[in-house]
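User: Hi! Is it possible to get a structure for several chains at once, not just one? Here's what I have:
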Amino acid sequence: MENSNNHLDVEKKSERSETVDLNDNTLQVDISDALSEREKVKFTVHTKTTLKDFAKQDFSVVRQHEEFIWLHDRFEENESYAGYIIPPPPPRPDFDSSREKLQKLGEGEGSMTAEEFKKMKQELEAEYLATFKKTVAMHEVFLCRLANHPIFRADTNFRVFLEYEQDLSVRGKNKKEKLETFLRSFSKTTDEILLGSTQKDVDEFFDKEKSFLLDYHSLLKDATLRADKMTKAHKDVADHYIKISSCLLEMATADTNQLERFATKTADIFEKARKIENRVSTDEDLKLSDTLRYYMRDTTAAKNLLYRRLRCLADYEGANRALEKARAKNKDVHAAEWSQHQACEKFEQMSAKGKEELIDFKVRRVAAIKKNLVELCELELKHANVTTPFTFSLKSF
Amino acid sequence: MADDRHAPKLDDEFNDDDLFASAIEIKVEAKADISLEDDRSNGLSPIEEQSHNLSAADEIDLNSDSEYKDGVPDTKAKIELRSEPEDIFEDIPEPKEVHRETMAGRSTLETLVTSPRTQSCNAYHAGTMIEEEKVITAESDGKFITISVKDPQKIGDGISSFLTYNVVTHTNIGLFKKTEMTVSRRFSDFLGLHDKLAEKYLHKGRLVPAPPEKNVVGTTKVKMAGGQTEHEGKLPEFVERRRAALERYLIRIAIHPIFQVDPDFREFLECEDELPRASNTSALSGAGVLRLFNRMGETVTKIAFKMGESDPWFEERHQQLETLESQFRRLQASLEGLYSHRRELAFATAALGKGLALLSNGEDHAGLSRALAKMAELHDKLEGVHNDQSNADFYILHELIKDYLSLLGVVKDVFHERVKAFQTWQHAQQMLAKKREAVDRWEATGRSDKVAPAKDEVLEWEAKVNRSQEEFDVISKAIKKELELFDLQRVKDFKAAFISYLEAQMKAQDKIIEHWETYMPEAKAIA
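Assistant: Yes, the chains can be modeled jointly so their relative placement is included. Here is the combined structure:
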């Protein structure tokens, strides 16, 4: 897997972009291709647009994961977007676990039969492919949300991201910068907690939302972890089927009587059962775990919004106090007034937008979870229904 | 007296292939080895006596190795001779026919063999672990024997406590006193039975099934468990496994045509009193230590002595069995892995269920909350299904493989007995040669007084050589028969086990389908 190039077909992309509805076609973004090279994944971002602002109608650029993160950070830092929920950035493409497993498999090659080895290798390759597809999907969803948001799509950084044909030369943060970011996030968290406990919100809606989101977030995190454990256990079970089926096959070849045919057939059944179990586990993973995970991240983004708003409120109140003081001292009244006015405006704007966003968030969340649950249900039924006929055939022996 | 009683009615009217031919010979020879039992109930002796009286040439001597009550005058026994019903005769030819009827006979045996596995399977569907009505029949020609082991009960308290099991037998084999009996036995009784059978048959080349293993940790836990003796739920899992294993053990004995009619076995099933404590089965007793030494010695000889194999059949078989054993071990390891992973899966599913329940509580959208709550319930149910499935994995398949591994061990032992017989034979031949030399020497030196005893010795050793050669042949033939039986049995058992396992899987899948189907409308109903 070190030097493998994985090209995904263009057709496949249709199954990936599901979570976001394109409500108008003036700007369509998708990831048409992806290449995996050593440590890096290169995404081909393809844009189709009818908007006049762009130089061309239809164009593609190659982007790496770091550039996606850069884009996200630009949005996050932008003050004028403070009232919006910034879509969570896609997670880093992580092939470490697959790589580890492959290594272990290679080491253990001597202890299993050629067939078993081949099958396990196949399994691993399938797993790798699945991880790959997932990461592409995540990146695509991120872009699509930006493209569909009426305000975000007009952002210059976004445009640059889509259009600029050269490398954006976003170097990964070096140590110093990483440390900076870490410290900044640390201070932000403490601030958040402090604010959360001291600052009282004027608006009840936001207050409720805040407490709800905090709880919800932790619950989601918990559920995600458990769902992950479950899918992993499922996978393990499926893997063991391979071993058993190969054992049986061996026994069958060594046995000279009627048990041979029987054992072969049984081995076959275990094999098929394995494939199905595997599929079940990947589906579960996709529908349930991933949904939960995504919404967990989204909730974080919503929490960020609330935090910013709270910060803004604090600033506003600070400005108010400053104004009063200024009025009392009768100094710099005008400046204080003006800053207060600014703060006030900012705050109002933020509240209004924020409210919209949060409501929207809720609707989106419910719809997505529902959709995924229904699909999960259907898939489970489909798989369970497939296994039954196999076992029937065995009884004929 | 003993010699009178069984006027050997054995002729060579038994054709070679008769399983029972050898059985009869064995009985006659083994008679000397059999220890007299103390508590023979009255009822048994008449049957034994009476069968002795049969004019039918076959198999009477089954019972001629009768166990007498100490000091019971034979007059009493003789009187009872005439009064028995004639139908006892029917039973006797039966064993022979078992074998004659090749496939037909075997097929009846076959169908019933499936039961052990399906029964274990049914256990899971019934849900309870401990008390199960398990019925196994070994049948031939309308005669059957059904054995079940149930109701483990703890008797006594503390270090001297032990578990007893009820052994319920239904049979219409006439050799048994009654058609239905229930006796209470403890684990050491089972081990005692095995010892007796092994003593009698192992060196004749018969495969005596191995009893379940001892389990010090489990037993101590049960002993130390506090007051509640009757609480089924308190008895640990190991008790259930042992109970099932004991049942399979008895069934395997019952299926074997020779062991089925063995008097020790019958006594085990019938005798209502407590059997004399087979205290020499305990690990720490004098006999136990002796056994240990014997086993060490045997291991050394196994390694040291390489028998010149004259029969390629044995060589081939030996190889085959070795490969089979290693395959079984691999399969067992994988099954254990499967079992533990599925347990994990069940666990994780339950955890997810709880997580979802919490989530649903925290969710403020009513519809979604309800759907999530339902999903949590669903996952709880799924956990139950997975648990059941893992139990099936374990009990049906894993125990089967374990049993077969121990059976393979017995087969190896039996092979070794053959090797020992060969050794004896060789040894006897060597001694004979030496004695002959001695005779020649004495004759050459003209010591006529030494010649006569030397010649006697030669005769004696000649007889020994013949005898040991015969034994060797006997054991070889017996082994061949036994292995055939073993193979057939193995095929049957495996087929049955896998079929019932897959059936269990299917049922599990059905349940899963059911659960998801009930959930589906909920998911769709989210507003």
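The radius of gyration of chain B is 29 Å. Chain B touches chain A through 54 residues (CB under 8 Å).

User: Great, thank you!
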